[in-house]
Design goal:
Blueprint (H helix, E strand, L loop, with lengths): L6 E2 L2 H10 L3 E7 L2 E7 L2 E5 L2 E8 L4 H8 L2 E13 L8 E15 L5 H13 L8 H5 L2 E15 L1
Antiparallel strand pairs: 1-8, 2-3, 2-6, 4-5, 5-8, 6-7, 7-8
């Protein structure tokens, strides 16, 4: 990271920033080109390991990418605000962002409720939901286990 003064290294602060984000963007390589998907997500941090949870339809380009390459990158950001100046070159933008890399795993049906609960908890604050068997069979649920995380805050 070029701007060391903006680096965030405190794990608790990084986790707080993640929890403030609304969208996580997953980055893949598809046919030699970058392919980025904005997704809703769930999150947990246990024993210093960060795990993100996602869901989608059972078929389509995203699922094909998930099945063909388990390594992905991710990015999320929050707390956006324009710093106004008298001259155009004096403007800047406040933000907090988290980026990283990790491995994607498609979850078995038995593991889907736990992951879906993390997603619902992130957006609704409630930790436990009921899911019909039909709903669980009609959705693909997957997790990203982060192996590298970088965090930056411009105040």
């Amino acid at each position: 990271m070029r701007r060391k003064d903006r680096r965030v290294t405190d794990d608790n602060v990084i986790n707080e920033i993640i929890l403030r984000c609304d969208v996580c963007r997953l980055g893949f390589v598809s046919d030699g080109m970058a392919y980025i998907l904005p997704l809703n997500f769930g999150f947990e941090s246990k024993n210093g390991k960060r795990t993100f949870y996602f869901h989608s339809a059972l078929e389509g380009k995203k699922i094909n990418l998930l099945k063909s390459a388990s390594a992905v990158s991710f990015e999320m950001d929050t707390d956006h605000r324009l710093n106004i100046a008298d001259e155009a070159c004096g403007f800047s933008y406040r933000f907090k962002s988290v980026m990283g890399t990790g491995r994607i795993t498609i979850l078995a049906d038995i593991d889907k409720p736990y992951a879906l609960d993390r997603i619902m908890e992130h957006y609704r604050g409630e930790k436990s939901w009921d899911y019909s068997k039909e709903a669980l069979k009609s959705v693909c649920v997957y997790k990203l286990e982060a192996d590298f995380v970088s965090c930056k805050a411009h105040k």
